[in-house]
Amino acid sequence: MKADANGRSIAVVTMSFGAPGTRPTVSTRWQLVDERIPPGPDVANVARRWTEAGLAGFRSQGFDPTALVATTTEPLDGREATVRNRPGRLTDLITEAMARVAGGSDVVLFNSGSVRIDDVLPAGPITEYDVIRVLPFGGSVVSVLMQGELLARVLETGENNQGLGGYLQTRGAQRGADGWLVGRKPIDAQSRYRVALADFLLTGREVDLGYLGPAVASSPSARSASLGLRATPEQEAVLRRAAEVAHKSLTDFILDSACLAAEQTLLDQRLFMVSGSQYRALMDLPDRSEQTNAGLEDLFSRKAPWDSR
């Protein structure tokens, strides 16, 4: 019987049957799955086949499971007993990465249940496959403006979910003696804070956080769409420098610049594709007879303010 995540240990149950009609004797023992248990060739073949199929699936989605992402000098603890109860180096790295993606966030939040490895990554190279093992569900980082009162409520709920997948890992927010702090200052219930969070938190399916999605969606400044961008290191450096000069977050700078360019492109459009009926309606406009417009007649009959003399 499997007794631990990732099959790292098993519960061995032994049942002894005596005379007919009597209750069997049941005993259990916990067994760690390590080098002391030699792999069976049939099991090894099945495991190898499924592993290769999984890696091929990742490659078909654009991942390179063997690609080096980073090299760590310390182990990264992703065990449920750790990440669902307190922050650690692994969860700190995740929130740092989210902050970098979002740009200019006051607070970063993600649910610890999204970390599924339930193991310790040893010090050394970290590959894309390791990242997939840690965060297999994927998803996007969403940047939203959140009222201080709502943010404090979310932080409180996340702390109360300690021990569960809904326990929130945070960056930029700390528990103070009299409440929650952002930037070492008490949260102002009426102020708005830029919050980067995992998009799953907006689905309403996390423990006791069903109110978060509707509350964010009702905000006119909510950003629920996610755009994936890849840039060269040189392009990223230019964008970050320009964002600093403009006193904007990287996300706001890219969005503002892209929207401005998009609007100009649309305004400069020369060729318009229309249906036959739309074209005929357009061509009929110059041939229409003059029509009386009482509003215009009234407007032009008035004396302009600058013609008072």
Describe what you observe in this structure.
A four-stranded mixed beta sheet has the order 8-13-5-9, with helices on both faces. It has helices at residues 41-60, 80-83, 89-102, 128-134, 148-160, 212-217, 233-245, 250-267, 276-284, 294-301; strands spanning 9-16, 25-32, 68-72, 76-77, 107-111, 120-121, 124-127, 141-147, 168-171, 173-176, 179-182, 185-186, 192-198. Helices cover 36% and strands 20% of the residues. The termini are far apart. It is elongated, with a radius of gyration of 30 Å.
Question: What layout of secondary structure does this protein have?
Answer:
Blueprint (H helix, E strand, L loop, with lengths): L8 E8 L8 E8 L8 H20 L7 E5 L3 E2 L2 H4 L5 H14 L4 E5 L8 E2 L2 E4 H7 L6 E7 H13 L7 E4 L1 E4 L2 E4 L2 E2 L5 E7 L13 H6 L15 H13 L4 H18 L8 H9 L9 H8 L8
Q: What's this model, at a glance?
A:
This protein has helices at 41-60, 80-83, 89-102, 128-134, 148-160, 212-217, 233-245, 250-267, 276-284, 294-301; strands at 9-16, 25-32, 68-72, 76-77, 107-111, 120-121, 124-127, 141-147, 168-171, 173-176, 179-182, 185-186, 192-198. By secondary structure, it is of the alpha+beta class. The chain is elongated.
